[in-house]
Write a structure and sequence with these properties.
CATH class: Alpha Beta
Order of helices and strands: HHHHHEHEEHEEHHE
Shape: elongated
Low-confidence stretches: 26-43
Helix content: 40-55%
GO molecular function, one term: glutathione disulfide oxidoreductase activity
Domain Glutaredoxin: 107-161
Number of domains: 1
Distance between the termini: 85 Å
InterPro entries: Glutaredoxin, Glutaredoxin_subgr, Thioredoxin-like_sf
GO cellular component, one term: fungal-type vacuole
Pfam family, one: Glutaredoxin
Length: 193
C-alpha cells in the first residue's frame, strides 16, 4: 500500500510541475530571453536594436509612424514584427544586410564631422532624430536598448559605442580606427591627432 502511495505522490507531483511550467512559462519568457535563451522557437534571435535600425533606415513617412502607434510602448520591448517592413521578414538576413550597408549608424549630427575625417566605407547612416515624427518614442526606445539617453548615440554593428564625448575619447586614444576596422568598416581617411 505504501508503494502505491509513493507512486501516486510522484505521479501527482510530476503532473503539478508540468502544469505549473505550462501555465506560468509565458510569465518568465522575457527573463529567459534576457539571459540569452529563447523560450519559443519561432521568435527571432536578433537583438531589437536591429529592428530599430531597420525601421529608421527606411526613408519613408510610414516608418516614422510605427513607434507612434497606440499599441507600441517604447519603454517596453517592441515586437520585432512591429519593426518589419514586410510579413515573414527574415531577421537574420536583415541583420546581415544592415551590418553590410549600415555598420555605423549615428543618431544625431553632432559626431558627423569627426566621423567624416575617417572617410568610412560604407559611410555612416545619419539619423536626424529631432526631425522625425516619432522623435520622442525613438529616443525612449534607443535609451532603453542602449542605456544611453544622450545624443548623439553611435551604433557600430548593433552596439552603442557612446556619444560625442565617448567617440572623441576613443579617437584621442587611437582606438576608434581599430574599432572600425575590427567591425569590418573600411577606414580610408587620414586624420590628425
Amino acid at each position: 500500500m505504501s508503494s502505491r502511495r509513493r507512486l501516486l505522490f510522484i505521479f501527482l507531483t510530476l503532473i503539478s510541475v508540468c502544469l505549473y511550467l505550462f501555465v506560468f512559462s509565458n510569465k518568465y519568457d522575457s527573463a529567459i530571453q534576457s539571459l540569452g535563451f529563447s523560450s519559443k522557437s519561432n521568435q527571432p534571435s536578433v537583438d531589437e536594436i536591429y529592428g530599430l535600425i531597420s525601421l529608421v533606415t527606411r526613408d519613408s513617412e510610414k516608418s516614422q509612424r510605427v513607434l507612434t502607434a497606440n499599441s507600441v510602448d517604447p519603454s517596453k520591448p517592441v515586437a520585432m514584427n512591429a519593426y518589419a517592413a514586410r510579413r515573414g521578414m527574415s531577421w537574420e538576413k536583415e541583420k546581415e544586410r544592415l551590418n553590410e550597408e549600415y555598420p555605423v549608424v549615428v543618431y544625431s549630427r553632432k559626431a558627423k564631422q569627426l566621423l567624416q575625417a575617417y572617410q568610412l566605407s560604407p559611410p555612416p547612416k545619419i539619423i536626424e532624430v529631432d526631425l522625425r515624427e516619432d522623435a520622442i518614442q525613438l529616443k525612449k526606445v534607443l535609451t532603453r536598448l542602449t542605456g544611453r539617453s544622450t545624443f548623439p548615440n553611435i551604433i557600430l554593428r548593433g552596439k552603442s559605442i557612446g556619444g560625442s564625448d565617448d567617440v572623441h575619447a576613443l579617437h584621442n586614444a587611437n582606438a576608434l580606427r581599430d574599432m572600425f576596422k575590427e567591425a569590418g568598416v573600411d577606414v580610408q581617411g587620414e586624420y590628425m591627432m
